[in-house]
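Sat 14:20. Reprocessing the chain from the morning session after the first attempt stalled halfway. Input below, unchanged.
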Amino acid sequence: MLVAGIDPGREGFITVLDSLSCRGWILKLRYCQKKILQYEDIELLPKIDICFVEQVHGRGGWAAKANFGLGSYYGQIKMALNLYGFECRDVLPKTWVNHFSDTKGSTKHRTLEAYKKIFKHAPIKPRVVMGEEKYNNNLIDSLMIALYGYNQIGLKTRKWVFNYVN
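Finished this time. Tokens:
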């Protein structure tokens, strides 16, 4: 069974987990949007059984362009998934974060903490910026959303081998 976790947005990612081969694919959403919405290279994405998409909301205080941009990406993703007949479930950020972490603190901190606990030999390495480790939160979010979905449909967490498609 193929389960996808999608963190929408301009810098978002898609993570696909395959329960049979224990393989995972991590794809930049910008790459996928270009290809999916132009109906090219569809075979790159395997036939996904179910998608879990982070439900995004605009925020007061943001510029109108930022809110509409976020809504546009989210709408494009949902449209493409529906066109190809993928089953989609929207997931609120608090729902999937609370599934992995019951501590207090910011969502980013809790997600990173849960990621490091689950993946002791991290498939996603941090980059070092001025001596400090920086993780790509969007990439980790897509991975954790996929893992949340994987657990929600009753599959057990396993050891994964990941391919990162740039």
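Helices lie at 29-37, 64-83, 93-100, 107-118, 137-152.
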